[in-house]
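Page 37, continued from 36.
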């Protein structure tokens, strides 16, 4: 569903992502982890066509992002770490705008939009402007807009920053529901206990390189040295920290 093959991204002379390859199948949730500056956001921006890759092949449900960017983007949703909204559009108008862009029929957009606002608990803010929303509410609105066209492939960059504990739990439930429904999901986060709950797979990056990839138990086992019950946090530290690295 998501195929990243040999992705390299350079900013001038600096290589932010170096020859990265991985796949995510329908129903899988891939946790993307790594220290600050590892290249996670860069990877997500390239994989969703926000910025061009320097090299590599990126496919969404078999559609090559370079050959058919509109066709590929129709199937995906990218939730960036900084919510960006239009100052002069209300919550409801944002949803109507998203529906137009993705050509969601009006009736379906209204029904699905209302359900999303209810699920994300911002239905009472439907007629408010972004300036009247809290940070977490803005994030929820971005999520509602992104889910409106029922994407098959989703990329979340730190989706829980700014959400309250109940919001975090709801977001976890939403992500689990989407994967049960067959979506392929990449979830970048530093909240490793969250990833342990939600992810089927993990990709660990450091300095633009892939350190490990596999199912969550496989990656944990790789860094457990035969011990049992090693947490993903401990795996992260062993995989990315230490003076020898
Ligand atoms: N537009 C840019 N121009 C130049 N360098 C950039 C640009 N964007 C990112 N970088 C560099 O690329 C590297 C990877 O950045 P990136 O934002 O992908 O990291 P990240 O893994 O998402 O980190 P974080 O956990 O802090 O979000 C960093 O060294 C960063 O300084
Ligand atoms: Mg980032």
């Amino acid at each position: 569903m998501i195929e990243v093959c040999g992705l390299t991204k350079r900013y001038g002379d600096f290589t932010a992502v170096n020859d990265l390859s991985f796949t995510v199948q329908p129903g899988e949730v891939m946790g993307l982890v790594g220290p600050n500056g590892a290249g996670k956001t860069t990877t997500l921006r390239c994989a969703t066509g926000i910025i061009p890759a320097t090299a590599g092949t990126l496919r969404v449900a078999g559609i090559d992002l370079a050959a058919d960017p509109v066709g590929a983007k129709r199937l995906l949703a990218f939730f960036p770490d900084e919510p960006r909204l239009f100052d002069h559009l209300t919550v409801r108008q944002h949803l109507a705008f998203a529906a137009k862009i993705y050509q969601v029929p009006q009736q379906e957009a209204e029904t699905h939009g209302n359900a999303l606002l209810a699920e994300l608990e911002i239905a009472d803010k439907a007629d408010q402007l972004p300036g009247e929303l809290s940070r977490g509410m803005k994030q929820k609105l971005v999520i509602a807009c992104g889910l409106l066209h029922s994407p098959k492939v989703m990329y979340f960059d730190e989706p829980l920053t700014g959400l309250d504990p109940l919001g975090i739990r709801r977001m976890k439930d939403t992500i689990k529901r989407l994967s049960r429904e067959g979506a392929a999901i990449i979830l970048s986060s530093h909240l490793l206990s969250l990833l342990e709950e939600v992810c089927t797979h993990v990709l660990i990056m450091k300095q633009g390189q892939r350190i490990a990839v596999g199912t969550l138990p496989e990656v944990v086992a790789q860094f457990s040295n035969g011990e049992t019950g090693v947490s993903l946090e401990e795996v992260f530290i062993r995989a990315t920290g230490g003076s020898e690295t």
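The longest helix spans residues 165-180. Flag for discussion at group meeting. The chain is about 35% helix and 25% strand.
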